[in-house]
Design a protein that fits this description.
Layout (H helix, E strand, L loop, with lengths): L1 H23 L2 H4 L8 H25 L4 H6 L3 H9 L7 E2 L2 H11 L8 H23 L11 H18 L1 H5 L9 H11 L5 H27 L4 H8 L2 H16 L1 H4 L22 H32 L6 H17 L6 E2 L1 H9 L6 H17 L8 H13 L4 H10 L1 H17 L1 H21 L3 E6 L6 E3 L11 E6 L8 H14 L5 E5 L8 H16 L3 E5 L3 H10 L1 H5 L4 E2 L2 H7 L4
Parallel strand pairs: 5-6, 6-7, 7-8
Antiparallel strand pairs: 1-2, 3-4, 3-5
Length: 590
């Protein structure tokens, strides 16, 4: 018997250790027990995402003020690391537009974009982002991202998309303007240089946008009318970035437009995998980059976790939010050491990854392998690639981030949330992305304090002959002249107990016949020290007015604290009731 117990105990311990190891190394679940049936979907998804990511990676690197190859470097090691450590089977990690804008806005004041010093600072920024996200994941601080509410995030992304789009017009027009993230300065510079536009460059850019839009909105419908299989439609419609890259590159090469018409091209992209790169280990530099690193950590994680959860729910899969932080942080640490820049999960690529049939993290590994092969063998093909084509790819990609639907929905549902969206949107446009994020977070916190500082308080009465008690202003209920039963629909803390006290004393002042007050705490999940002190003072004030204070429907954890601190003894155990109905029975009101 003892032997059986020992074997059982050892088995349980091994399972627990395996479960714990699988939590931090999710690939142990899918890679060790890989099913052959998943291979076709993973292979197809990996190839399609790689086709998207090659031109996007270079485009987003240019947006971040970096050489185009940096975007490719950021699409190799980070994808491998996330593919092994991430809990999402379909999230496609890599360079994204919003993070690229945050990079250039945070680092360009410290160094000239594209310079060696700038690249070193960007590597350091990736290190800080990685460390912040890993630490947050290890100590389970994923909840902190909730300070970026959905309306605030929507306002930020919409405004950032507009800034990104206008920032690419200089490449679309073939003009040079100073780097800035303020929209009004950007528009001013563009207006001054509009007469210097290169008509050939404009034609290439507009033609690329036309092709991208046709592939995005028209080609799929046309292919369906022709009876093409859905599995073929996805890769064909998502190949638009590669198509415009090939067309634009071929046109410039064939007609020598870079010489004959001064079309700006990407020029030489170094071939071969990057060597080991090291960040700046200087505390002063870290302090300067910390605000940007925090912004990227929060915004990048929010973008990743939202799309990861959305796609996982469609397959009834589970996402571990804290492990996602660790995986994204590790991916950014990988980018630091391999010449990349901060990365996160991209919405459009993840949706394509999902639709193309990605089943496991192997799809991400396949994408990384194809990007690596591109860097080793195919970079000479990008020499004649027009910058206008990359600008067109960015403009079409970020146009989908402008979210008017959320504004309309939130405006009809809650004007305060709509105000936070609008304030964030306008602040980003007027003052820049980092200030906009800070203002958005501040507005979210202020709105939370404002709402919870004035909780809904209802006087309740008995509904018919039932034991149910509802708001006297909404339902035909029975009340008792010498007893007032109240319900407060919020936890009690320092910001709202004064409001509750004023409500209680106001009701008592209006009803001199009242001898008992019953406070229903069915919605109270927590009472902090300040609220407890206010409640104690309220009990004394009511007694001085000849009114006894009662509590009903208090939850177990809250009651445990009230007993431990002596509050229950203060008001008397007979003044504590299991339900509002029990309290009314005890006070002869039923």
């Amino acid at each position: 018997m003892a032997t059986l117990e020992a074997v059982s105990s050892a088995t349980i311990q091994r399972r627990a250790e395996k479960s714990s190891l699988s939590r931090f190394l999710p690939f142990l679940d899918w890679l060790v027990h890989y099913q052959r049936a998943n291979l076709v979907g993973d292979l197809m998804a990996g190839i399609i995402v790689a086709i998207m990511l090659v031109p996007q990676g270079m485009a987003y690197a240019l947006l971040a003020g970096l050489p185009p190859q940096v975007g490719l470097y950021a699409s190799i090691a980070p994808l491998i690391i996330y593919g092994l450590l991430g809990t999402s089977r379909t999230l496609a990690v890599g360079p994204v537009a919003i993070v690229s804008l945050l990079v250039v806005s945070g680092v360009s004041p410290l160094a000239e974009p594209g310079s060696a010093a700038y690249i070193q600072l960007v590597l350091t920024l990736a290190l800080l982002v990685g460390l912040i996200q890993v630490v947050m994941g290890l100590v389970r601080l994923g909840f902190l991202v909730n300070f970026l509410s959905h309306p605030v995030l929507s306002g930020f992304t919409s405004a950032a998309a507009i800034v990104i789009g206008f920032s690419q017009l200089k490449h679309l027009l073939g003009v040079s303007i100073p780097q800035t993230e303020q929209l009004y300065e950007l528009l001013l510079h563009l207006a001054q240089r509009l007469g210097e536009s290169n008509p050939v460059t404009v034609s290439i850019g507009l033609g690329s946008i036309g092709v991208l839009l046709y592939f995005k909105y028209g080609l799929g419908k046309q292919l369906k009318r022709w009876g093409v299989s859905e599995r073929l439609i996805v890769p064909l419609t998502r190949s638009a970035p590669l198509v415009v890259v090939l067309l634009g590159t071929g046109l410039v090469w064939a007609l020598a437009l870079h010489e004959q018409a001064s079309v700006k091209i990407v020029a030489e992209v170094p071939a071969g995998l990057p060597g080991l790169t090291l960040p700046v280990l200087d505390s002063q530099v870290w302090q300067l980059l910390l605000p940007t690193a925090l912004a990227i950590s929060f915004v990048g994680y929010m973008e990743s976790i939202s799309v990861a959860k959305s796609l996982a729910s469609k397959r009834r899969q589970k996402i571990d939010a804290d492990q996602e932080l660790i995986a994204l942080g590790a991916a950014n640490l990988g980018a630091t050491l391999t010449g990349g820049y901060p990365v996160t999960g991209g919405f459009s690529r993840s949706v394509v990854n999902f639709a193309a049939g990605a089943n496991t993290g192997l799809a991400s590994l396949i994408t990384a392998a194809l990007i690596a092969l591109t860097v080793i063998f195919l970079t000479p093909l990008f020499y004649f690639l027009p910058q206008a084509v990359l600008a067109a790819i960015i403009i079409v990609a970020v146009a989908g981030l402008i979210d008017l639907a959320t504004l309309r929905h939130v405006w009809h549902y809650n004007k305060a949330d709509a105000a936070s969206l609008i304030v964030t949107f306008l602040t980003v446009l007027a003052l820049g992305v980092e200030v906009g994020i800070g203002v958005g977070v501040a507005v979210t916190i202020l709105l939370f304090l404002w709402r919870t500082s004035r909780p809904h308080v209802a006087v309740v009465g008995r509904l018919g002959q039932s034991e149910t008690y509802r708001n006297i202003l909404r339902h035909p209920v029975k009340t008792c002249p010498h007893v007032v039963a109240m319900r407060v629909d919020e936890s009690l803390y320092f910001a709202n107990t004064k409001f509750l006290e004023d409500c209680v004393l106001g009701i008592i002042a209006e009803r001199p016949e009242v001898k008992h007050l019953v406070l229903s705490g069915i919605a109270i999940n927590f009472i902090d020290a300040s609220a407890l002190e206010t409640l104690a003072a309220l009990v004394e004030e009511l007694r001085n007015a000849g009114v006894e204070f009662h509590l009903a429907e208090i939850k177990g954890p809250v009651m445990d604290r009230l007993k431990a601190i002596g509050f229950v003894d203060k008001i008397g155990p007979d003044h504590i009731h299991l339900s509002t109905h029990d309290a009314m029975q005890a006070l002869n009101c039923v």
